[in-house]
Specification:
- Keywords: Membrane, Transmembrane, Transmembrane helix.
- This protein is an all-alpha fold.
- The longest helix is centred in the C-terminal third of the chain and has 34 residues.
Length: 406
């Protein structure tokens, strides 16, 4: 696997398996799922022996906490819920891609190759999204029941967002740090805003606008910052006051949420998953595992609350991470976000921080931080961050020794 070309092919296929082939409906339930499971399982197996590197700095401890929590949750769901080992493993295989971080670190995988692969998948995402949007009455990549017409536009939350948003943040980063291919990076940057608005999800729009705004004003002088922010706020105010159907859809949704207050379905769901979902002290600390399999008592339990109360784990963000994988997994995520703020990055790699901040900004009411089709993108981002951290640390040490010798 250390051969460079075979390693690239391995990762390329691993990504498409991890994002579940963009939920391509034509292969759903086919023999492809067995290939997918086997391939991901192989990736996990070759990564497990490398989970204990000699040094435990940077992002290693947080990823270890999350990985161990997921592995342990497989057995927790068996012991406390009676879910079979097969169902528990099958339900967890997509989130176990966290351990791929250790394989990438072990083989010292090329950052440049990862960036190219991510961009390829980001562009594929764009084409497939617009194709599905133009054929919203066909279930090529989505369940037709998930299509929402109530927000002023055909709302399609297309699967595999992780690679797309890494591509988008990479684009705004490269746009301001590279002299070549400006048109390419500018186009991808614009598409980041367009697709986000078209998906009409408030927390996504908020997060993307905040990160774009921060990126383009952070290096400007105070006068330019005030002018730029004022123009953006003025534009936002103008759009909010317009009769645009998308804006009206967002406004109606926000008004309904405000009226619901404490009765808002996501507030009630989060309260339930925090206080009443877990049956034992063990579950309250170590989680309950991933519900999977129609015959599983645990799966039936979660389905009951979805059907009768509308309590979806996917709607409660980090609370779902706690409910499934326990407090140590949540701690792992928190440490990643803290380190993304503390650990410095070269200017041309700021997109790594932006993506992790995007996950943070959307982590309370959406599944972006743990959604299986997003996780491989998160793993790649954290690996690149770790790689740069270690490289900068070595360079700093060499520089210090050189100064001492002088």
């Amino acid at each position: 696997m250390k051969n460079k070309s075979s390693g690239t092919i391995f990762l390329f296929i691993l990504i498409i398996c991890s994002i579940n082939f963009f939920e391509f409906q034509a292969i759903r339930g086919s023999i492809v799922k067995y290939f997918q499971f086997g391939y991901l399982f192989l990736g996990v197996l070759i990564s497990l022996p490398h989970m204990f590197p000699k040094k435990n700095d940077g992002f290693i401890l947080p990823v270890q906490l999350i990985s161990f929590s997921i592995i342990l949750s497989i057995f927790i769901s068996m012991v406390t819920w009676g879910q079979s080992f097969g169902d528990s493993l099958a339900g967890s295989i997509l989130v176990l891609v966290w351990v791929i971080f250790f394989y990438l670190k072990h083989v010292n995988f090329s950052i440049r190759k990862i960036e190219k692969i991510i961009i390829i998948y980001g562009i594929i995402y764009l084409f497939l999204y617009f194709f599905q949007f133009l054929h919203s009455d066909k279930n090529y990549f989505i369940d037709l029941e998930s299509v929402d017409q109530s927000r002023g536009i055909t709302r399609i939350v297309f699967p595999g967002q992780g690679v797309f948003y890494v591509t988008v943040y990479m684009a705004i980063n490269k746009l301001t740090t590279q002299k070549r291919n400006k048109w390419f990076w500018a186009t991808l940057s614009i598409m980041g805003i367009v697709v986000t608005v078209m998906q009409v999800t408030r927390q996504y729009i908020f997060a993307v606008v905040i990160i774009y705004l921060y990126h383009f004003v952070k290096d400007q002088n105070l006068f330019k910052k005030i002018g730029f922010v004022s123009c953006v706020l003025g534009l936002v105010f103008y759009i909010i006051q317009s009769d645009n159907p998308i804006v009206e859809g967002l406004r109606d949704t926000q008004q309904q949420t405000a009226e619901d207050g404490a009765d808002y379905i996501r507030v009630r769901a989060a309260t339930f998953f925090l206080t009443d979902f877990s049956h034992s002290p063990i579950n309250r600390i170590l989680g309950n595992g991933e519900p999977y399999g129609e015959s599983s008592p645990y799966y039936k339990y979660t389905t009951y609350y979805i059907t009768n109360y509308g309590y979806w784990l996917a709607d409660v963000g980090l609370v779902a991470v706690y409910a499934m994988f326990g407090v140590f997994a949540v701690l792992g995520y928190i440490l990643i976000w803290v380190k993304s703020y503390v650990i410095k990055l070269p200017k041309n790699f700021l997109y790594l921080r932006y993506y992790l901040w995007y996950l943070l900004l959307t982590s309370l009411t959406s599944a972006t931080s743990y959604l299986s089709s997003n996780l491989i993108a998160t793993v790649l981002v954290v690996y690149i961050y770790q790689h740069i951290y270690e490289k900068e640390k070595i360079n700093s040490l060499i520089h210090t020794k050189y100064k001492l010798n002088l």
